[in-house]
Design a protein that fits this description.
By secondary structure, this protein is of the alpha+beta class. The protein contains 4 helices and 3 strands, in the order H-E-E-H-H-E-H. A 3-stranded mixed beta sheet has the order 1-2-3. The protein is globular and about 35 Å long.
Amino acid sequence: MLSQQIIQDKLSQAISDIKNVIITDTSNGCGQSFDVIVVSDTFQGKNKLQRCRLVNNALKEEVAQIHAFGCKCFTLEEWSKLVV
C-alpha cells in the first residue's frame, strides 16, 4: 500500500529545493487516492502543466498503483501569497 511517507520521500529525491509538501489521503486511509501540494522554487518559470509533469514523473510508479492522484504546484512566493 502506498503511504504519505513514500510519496514525500520520492518527491524529496526528485525535486530539488522543496520548501513544503502537503499530502492528503483522500481515500479515508486505504492509500488509493491522494492530493498533493508541492512548494518549490524549482517551479519558477514553468507553467502548470510542466510543474505537474515534474511531480508525475517523480511518482510515476506510485501513481500507476493508485486510483486517483491530484497535484498542485507552487513557488514559495506563490504559496506565501495564498496562505496569508
